[in-house]
Every structure is written in structure tokens, then in C-alpha cells.
Amino acid sequence: MIAPVVDVAWLAEHPEAVLADLRWHLDGRSGLDAHARGHIPNSVFVDLPTVLAAEPTPDGGRHPLPTPEVFAAGMRAAGISDDSVVVAYDDAGGASAARLVWLLRSRGVDAALLDGGIDAWPGELATGVWTPPAPGEFTARPWDPAGLATIDDAATARHVVDARASERYRGETEPIDPRAGHIPGAISLPFAGNLDADGRFLPPDALAERFRAAGLSQDAEVIVYCGSGVTACHNLIALERAGFGRLRLYPGSWSQYAATERPAAIGDDPGTRPAVHVV
């Protein structure tokens, strides 16, 4: 398996890699339109809401995992096969591209984030409407439950990380989901803290120090959530880069949890849970 984050120098040495443009914006701007205006040459476009997520529901959250069949069909349409090497990018430090990388890596497919995203590309951008490539050969297989966490897991596990912005964790604002606050017992590690001032990933040792300072150990099982299970994948990539190995995504994330009557915590204090499983 390749490293979870690679740079443009690595990309230049691996021309066989499939470049995937994962630009997607909460404010409704079209990632496909952005791709047409300028993209890294030869990159394919992958639509996060239709390929990397199922339809939103109160029970499942805003971005439930897609069915294996939908995901596989989306990969085939993007020219991605089971044996492909995939490098994904966006224009937000990997915030949306990480979802594809995590899903592919969870399936054993070589995939990585392009460090710095589209802004790191040193050459001219290509323009024009995306034309789908020749279909890939990607097998539909069930998601591995070992890498996923349920709402009960997120409510009771010892090490739970909230990847949202700090003000949302504290409950000072909630622009999207039904309630403000965080899952009691979760610690706040906003995904943006994985990046330096230039939007590049911190070195592995700096990331490891960030996570250790928050109380995580490299042999512990860590569950990560965010608003809808997208930017949580950024933290999962960063944790893997830092050498942490027992990692799980809570796909429903706060959008699922907030739609229930389960207790929520407010402020900087993680809060307490009625039961904690030591892992």
C-alpha cells in the first residue's frame, strides 16, 4: 500500500496513477463546473454526493456510505480498477478528496491524497468539459465492518475524535445539523489542524505529537466523526500518516447523532458518557 499522502514529485514518478478531482462545496457550487474551468491534466472527476454517499436520511445522516454497488459503478465510470493507483485532490486541503482515499484504502486499493491539492500543481491546468474515460474493472464488495463504527460505538468508545471546527464542537454554532454540540466524551481535533499555513500536511512526527497531546496513543482504537463522515476521513488519513493503525470511521457522524434524543455536550469539556468500553 502506498503512503496515504503523496506530493507532485511522487506523482511525476508514477505516471500510471489515476488522478481524481474531488472538488465539492457545501455552498452548492458545482465541482464539475470547477473541473471544466481548470483541472490537473488527465484527471477524472468524481462526484462526492452521488458516488461516495447514499441519499441523506435522518437515520443515516447527510452522507451515508454508498452501497458497494453504487461505489463500484462510480469507480468504473471514472476509469478506476481494482489494481489502479489513485491520487485524489481538491481545493480544500483534502477535505473532500480524503473520503475517496479512505474508501479506496479500506478496500485495499492503492490511493493517496495529493499534498496541497490543485494549488500544488506546478504546470498549466487543463480546461474543458470532462469526458468519461474507458470504464475500469472495479469489483463491488461489502464494506469491511472492522473499519466502521456505529452510533453506539461512537457514544461509548474510549477514544472518539470530532473533526469539525472548534466552534461547532463547542456548540456555539450549528449551520447544518439539527442540534449543536458534540458527542459526550469526544475530543476536538479539527481536521484543518493537520495542515500547515500553506495547506500542506504536517510531517508524520508533528501529526503524531498533535494526536498524542490530545490523549491518543498509537496502539489505541480511535473512532473519528465529523458533521457527515466526510472530513472525518481527513483525520483518518492524518492518523495513518502519523503511524496510528486501529482506526474507524463513524459514517453517520453528528448529522445522524443530532437527529436522535441522545445527550449532547456543549463547550470545551468533552463531557462524560454513561458507559465506556476500554479499547
UniProtKB/TrEMBL annotation:
Protein keywords: Repeat, Transferase
Ranges for the Rhodanese domain?
Answer: 13-127, 159-266
Residues making up the signal peptide according to the UniProt record? none
The record, for Gene3D superfamilies, names: Rhodanese-like domain
Keyword Amino-acid biosynthesis, does the record have it?
Answer: no
Is Repeat set as a keyword in this record?
A: yes
Please name one Pfam family that this protein belongs to: Rhodanese
The record ties this protein, via PANTHER family, to:
SULFURTRANSFERASE, THIOSULFATE SULFERTANSFERASE
Q: Under what name is this protein listed?
A: Sulfurtransferase
